[in-house]
Design goal:
The chain is of the alpha/beta class. The chain is about 35% helix and about 20% strand. The chain has an eight-stranded parallel beta barrel, surrounded by six helices. It has a four-stranded antiparallel sheet with strand order 2-3-1-4. The model has no long low-confidence stretch (mean pLDDT about 95). Bound molecules: phosphoenolpyruvate (PEP) and manganese (II) ion.
């Protein structure tokens, strides 16, 4: 990092900063210019910046970090993609992962029927919530453990890996038994103890971006997981909160190229929760693929009008095959291959 000294900084103040840099285990390079002195601290920024606490010190104008605050998930450290492979299905690195299924596991029939439909349409994994993070405590909270049993049955029948949300460490043991991919919901992206706990598992992680979190904060949450040893992380942009109220959230398509530029992790998009209305999902799904997404996660229901959660945004199961065929035109255009699943019918 660079420490820019004030024009008025005394030799004593400069020396005191140099001493602190050296005490922190870094090397100090002092460049004395005509007006200001700049001290280069050579070492790992991520540790030195926090340790030195130089902002606001006497004689210090500002501190400029050179390295990103995250390391393991960064592209600058990795020099390449870190695709995530789940039971033979690759997400990232040129392989496109379509994850689909109901918002919530409601019944055995609803889940199995949806699983069959999404598999036939070309999805490579099945999503479905057992534990639901609902805004209101009076709404359906998910079936919990019985839902996990239904998901296990859906996997046994279709072979599709299961993506399901973990809300609390107390559910970890049960979720680990069934999930192939542990989903971290937008509302839990900064529950750091949860990030550490899942970082110690061998499951792939689908990490949603928080509703009011920056891309840097999102990548730092991924870093928490990676730091514990688990680097199988898929980032998921699901819309952020802005002043606009016409859609449920504002899908931040710019997060796709930005996150992929900063990080080696695959980035997928959830247009369902961003838009909140099924007729808006297809255009944003196409746009997400065109912007470089490595996959999509979408909600599908056989009878959305009777859904216990997120009915208006769930794609009707009966049109899902045509829906996928439409999106696949953009997947082809981007030179990506669909991961796993069944062959997708040609576009209509
Ligand atoms: C979900 O995928 O079911 C969900 C609750 O999404 P989010 O955390 O993005 O709101
Ligand atoms: Mn939902």
């Amino acid at each position: 990092m660079m420490i820019v000294m004030k024009q008025s900084a005394s030799d004593g103040q400069i020396q005191s900063v140099v001493d602190r840099v050296v005490a922190a285990g870094a090397q100090a390079h002092v460049s004395r210019g005509e007006f200001v002195t700049v001290i280069g601290a050579i070492g790992d920024d991520r540790e030195i910046v926090a340790q030195l606490n130089l902002e606001g010190e006497e004689g210090v104008e500002r501190v400029v970090p050179i390295l990103k605050p995250y390391k393991l998930v960064s592209r600058e450290f990795r020099h390449g993609d870190l695709p995530v492979v789940v039971d033979g299905r690759q997400v990232g690195g040129g392989s496109f992962g379509l994850i689909a299924g109901p918002c919530t596991v409601e019944t055995r029939e609803q889940t199995l029927e949806t699983a069959r439909v999404v598999k036939a349409a070309g999805a490579c994994m099945l999503r479905g919530g057992a534990y639901k993070p609902r805004t209101s405590p009076y709404t359906f909270q998910g079936l919990g453990t019985p839902a996990l049993e239904i998901l296990a049955e859906a996997r046994a029948e279709t072979g599709l890996p299961i993506v399901t949300e973990l809300m609390d460490v107390r559910q970890l043991e049960d979720v680990l038994e069934v999930a192939d991919v542990i989903q971290v919901g937008a509302r839990n992206m900064q529950t750091f103890d949860l990030m550490k706990e899942i970082g110690r598992t061998d499951k792939a992680i689908l990490l949603k971006r928080g509703l009011a979190n920056t891309i840097e904060e999102w990548l730092l949450s991924a870093e928490y997981i990676a730091k514990e040893g688990n680097e199988r992380i898929i980032l998921c942009e699901r819309g952020i909160r802005t002043f606009e109220t016409a859609t449920r959230s504002t899908l931040d398509l710019s997060a796709i190229p930005v996150a992929k530029n900063l990080s080696a992790l695959p980035v997928i998009v959830d247009p369902s929760h961003a838009m909140g209305r099924r007729d808006f999902i297809l255009p944003m799904a196409r746009a997400a693929v065109a912007a470089g997404a490595d996959g999509l996660i979408v909600e599908v229901h056989p009878e959305p009008e009777h859904a216990l959660c997120d009915g208006p945004q769930q794609i009707r199961a009966e049109v899902f095959t045509a829906w996928v065929a439409d999106v696949k035109r953009v997947v082809d255009l981007m030179g990506l291959v669909m991961a796993g699943g069944e062959p997708v019918p040609a576009a209509v």
